User: Which sequence fits this backbone?
């Protein structure tokens, strides 16, 4: 399995942030198979290449860990940058730090982020293969969200959303028009202000932008399921988490 050098180092659990990883690489402190590498996107063969940081060999943890968290709104699905700290932001990793040692905590990443104001089901792991299986659209793993809207969803709007709508998508600082793939929308309450949305892709703020394209505002948004892994089934309270095993996850993704 090939990884970018910055991904490999991030999974080793010895760096507290992505910035620390990039600083180490660009400062010439990283060697791969005896050669200094300053390109964070240099490809590393995990399990074969020998990687050193300041002459000390670093490796990802041998065991994988899988965490299911009921994320509260108001938390970032990333580690805090210095500007985040200055702004008083909170991170989901702060919820985990009371129970995990620092190396294990540093090795974890979120399997598909939720934006700051979106709550609900969030998986964290250090298993890159499982993460790729869940997040890559070609595998067709469905994610379901519960959206509370500021006005009822009309039958016409529902039909448009299920067929795909054009949204303004932002990727790598650039904005472009994008037509969403088909999704399934289920009425959750009789007034049609609360609906369940199931889709197999996960563009940045996609669900919110889908509704905004039709003049509807999402007041609250929560991810309630990934495949057959559901918040309802976990019975986790907001802000709480539990450990899972890989077999449990695999069975619920098929």
Assistant:
């Amino acid at each position: 399995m090939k990884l970018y050098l910055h991904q490999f180092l991030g999974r080793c659990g010895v760096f507290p942030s992505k910035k620390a990883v990039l600083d180490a690489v660009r400062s010439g402190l990283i060697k791969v198979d005896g050669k200094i590498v300053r390109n964070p996107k240099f490809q590393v063969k995990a399990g074969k290449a020998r990687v050193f940081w300041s002459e000390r060999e670093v490796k990802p943890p041998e065991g994988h860990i899988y965490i299911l968290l009921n994320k509260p709104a108001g938390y970032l699905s990333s580690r805090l940058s210095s500007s985040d700290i200055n702004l008083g932001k909170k991170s989901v990793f702060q919820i985990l730090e009371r129970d995990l040692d620092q190396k294990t905590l540093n090795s974890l990443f979120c399997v598909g982020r939720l934006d700051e104001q979106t709550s609900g089901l969030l998986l964290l792991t250090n298993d890159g293969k499982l993460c790729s299986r869940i997040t890559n659209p070609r595998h067709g793993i469905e994610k379901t969200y519960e959206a509370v809207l500021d006005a009822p969803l009309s039958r016409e709007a529902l039909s448009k959303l299920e067929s795909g709508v054009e949204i303004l998508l932002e990727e790598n600082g650039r904005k472009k028009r994008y037509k969403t793939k088909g999704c399934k929308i289920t009425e959750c309450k009789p007034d049609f202000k609360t609906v369940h949305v199931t889709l197999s892709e996960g563009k940045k703020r996609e669900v919110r932008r889908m509704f905004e394209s039709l003049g509807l505002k999402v007041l609250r948004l929560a991810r309630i399921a990934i495949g057959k892994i559901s918040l309802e089934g976990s019975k986790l309270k907001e802000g709480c988490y539990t450990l899972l095993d890989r077999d449990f996850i695999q069975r619920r993704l098929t």
User: Anything to note?
Assistant: The longest strand covers residues 218-226. The mean pLDDT is 91. Residues 6 and 40 are 5 Å apart (CA to CA).
